[in-house]
Every structure is written in structure tokens, then in C-alpha cells.
Design brief:
327 residues, alpha/beta, 7-stranded parallel β-sheet, 3-stranded antiparallel β-sheet, 10 strands, 21% strand
Length: 327
């Protein structure tokens, strides 16, 4: 089932000058940081990746927890105060995007998304943020059945309702979170329940070039050259984009027809070159008996939610709130 939001699509994305300037700077620095040998010039990319420290603001307290010091692996936790909420809250575990190797939980972009100003909808204040590669650590922690999940001695906050958990993911985080969600479906938990999966323009791919990849070449943020470089850097050596980490519903993917999956909502944009892969994902999940809702914004680009100036950003927040509190 799908829905179209945001009106008729234009021929080119209509973006304010400030948004275009920000995107252009990000593209220049990210392209310059991609080395031919598959490594990243982090000094260069960090020049535009603004970092913020955890703090308390607008009734929400954030804190950082180290998962693996040897890999500098950590997550940032956001906890609204009981005075602000007045009761138990759903828990959202958020896997951020960034092509598998850009950005971090301390990036201002994701900190703002998880702890937005009071003028934004409070539903996004409930995000627990983890870097994409934290999926294994989280899975290894919660697989101990019938116990409250802990991460290196950190219990969930008292106002967290573990029976109403959501897996949120955007872009490259969507691939990792898909496999984590499948892992949840193989196990039984007494106190932990996944109520829904939120996928914002997931970063799926494959060897075949789709119509949207060819037709939308040249739009902001996503290009074939960038996605190819990120996949080559991320996938196991010798693998191609048919690998199940990229093509999660392809011929090499695992059989998930018998696994329990919570309801999935997938947000897509008319100017996202990866939209055809996202549609194939929705169709593949539906063929496997999973409930999927597609929300398509005709004028949205990849990462549209990062720019409050764009009307789709407000539409997304409303749709997200309705999805979380309808489960």
C-alpha cells in the first residue's frame, strides 16, 4: 500500500539557495575525501561535519556510551524527562546514514534530528542513535533472551516502554537495520517487542542499473559514481552489488518469508535515484507476507528530512508521529 504526498512532481528539484549551497559543499568535500584505494580522507570530510557534544535542552537529555573503544564505536542516547512526557515512551533505535562511512552520532545533523527544537514534533525526541556499524553490538546484547537489554552496564531509562520499540533507519543505515530486524524475527523476547520499522530512503542497490538511477543522474547528493564507491568500500572484497548487504531482496538474499516482521513504513522521494530499489524492496517484502506502507514525496531529494526549510520535512514529521502512535 502506498500514498503520494506533497503534490505533483516538478522536472527538477526546487530547492532554496541555502539548501543548494549546503548540498554543494557536502558533495565537493565528500567527493574529495573518497580515495581511489577505497579509504576515506577523514580530515577533509570533518571540515564540514560539524560535531556537537551531548547536553540537556528542551527537556531532553543526551549522553554518549562507548560500545567498543578499540574501534571508537559509540552511540548517543536521547531521553525526554518524565516532566515533559508524563509517562512511558516508545523506544526508537535509529541507524543513521552516511554511505556506511561518513558522519557519526555526534554529527550536528543527526543530533538536531533526534533532539529538535521545541517547534518540531516531539515524536523525534525519542530517538536513540547508533552508528551504522553498531548493529552487531546491539544484536549481540539483546539476543540474551528474557532479560532486559543492557549495553555495557547501561539500562534503558525508566520511562522507556520496551514493549513499544521501533527500528528507524535512513539511507545506508537502512541496509544494516533491515538485517538486524530480520535477526529479531528469528528470536523470542519476553520484555522487548518491535512494533514498527521506519525506513527513510534506504540505500539499497544492485548490479543492474535502474530507470531512476539513469534518469535522475545529476540530481543532488546521490550519483552512480558516489554509490559505486561506497558499495565497493563497504562490501567484502571481491563482492559485487548483488551481495545481500546491498540487494536485500535479490536472488542471493536470505529467505525471510517465515520470519516475524513488524509493520514497515518506507519514505521515498521523487528525486532520489535509489527510489526504484526502494520500490523493489517494498514489493519484495510484500511478496514475503510483510505489511509495508510506502509514502512517496514527488519533489523530495535524498536526505530531504535534513532540511527544515523543505515542506517534505514537515510532512515527514507528521507521518512519523502518526505511524508511531498508531501502533
Amino acid at each position: 500500500m502506498g500514498s503520494i504526498a506533497g503534490g505533483r512532481a516538478s522536472k527538477r528539484p526546487e530547492l532554496p539557495w541555502k539548501v543548494r549551497l549546503t548540498i554543494t559543499a557536502f558533495e565537493i568535500f565528500s567527493d574529495g575525501s573518497f580515495r581511489r584505494n577505497g579509504t576515506l580522507n577523514r580530515f577533509l570530510i570533518n571540515l564540514i561535519d560539524l560535531k556537537v557534544s551531548p547536553k540537556t535542552a528542551n527537556g531532553v537529555t543526551s549522553s554518549d556510551t562507548t560500545v567498543d573503544p578499540s574501534r571508537n564505536l559509540c552511540f548517543r542516547r536521547f531521553v525526554p524527562s518524565a516532566a515533559e512526557t508524563g509517562g512511558k515512551l516508545p523506544v526508537v533505535v535509529y541507524f543513521h546514514g552516511g554511505g556506511f562511512l561518513l558522519l557519526s552520532p555526534s554529527s550536528q545533523l543527526f543530533d538536531d534530528l533526534c533532539k529538535p527544537p521545541r517547534r518540531r514534533n516531539p515524536s523525534c525526541r525519542r530517538l536513540r542513535q547508533l552508528p551504522p556499524r553498531a548493529g552487531t553490538s546491539l544484536s549481540g546484547t539483546v539476543r540474551r533472551r528474557n532479560r532486559r537489554p543492557q549495553i555495557h552496564g547501561r539500562n534503558p531509562p525508566d520511562n522507556a516502554d520496551l514493549s513499544r520499540c521501533f527500528i528507524a533507519r535512513d539511507s545506508a543505515g537502512g541496509d544494516i537495520a533491515h538485517h538486524l530486524t530480520a535477526g529479531f524475527g528469528e528470536r523470542n523476547f519476553r520484555n522487548l517487542k518491535i512494533e514498527g520499522v521506519i525506513a527513510r530512503h534506504p540505500y539499497f542497490g544492485g548490479e543492474q542499473r535502474t530507470d531512476s538511477e539513469n534518469r535522475l543522474e545529476g540530481v543532488p547528493i546521490v550519483s552512480k559514481k558516489r554509490t559505486d564507491w561506497c558499495w565497493k568500500a563497504f562490501l567484502p572484497e571481491g563482492s559485487d552489488r548483488a551481495h545481500p548487504a546491498a540487494n536485500v531482496c535479490g536472488p542471493k538474499s536470505r529467505d525471510i518469508s517465515g520470519l516475524k516482521f513488524a509493520k514497515i513504513i518506507v519514505f521515498m522521494g521523487g528525486f532520489d535515484p535509489l527510489r526504484d530499489w526502494q520500490k523493489r524492496y517494498c514489493e519484495g517484502m510484500q511478496r514475503n507476507g510483510k505489511e509495508v506502507k510506502m509514502v512517496d514525496y514527488p519533489n523530495a531529494i535524498h536526505c530531504f528530512y535534513a532540511f527544515p526549510e523543505l515542506p517534505e520535512s514537515t510532512l515527514f514529521i507528521r507521518e512519523l508521529k502518526d505511524f508511531i502512535f498508531s501502533q
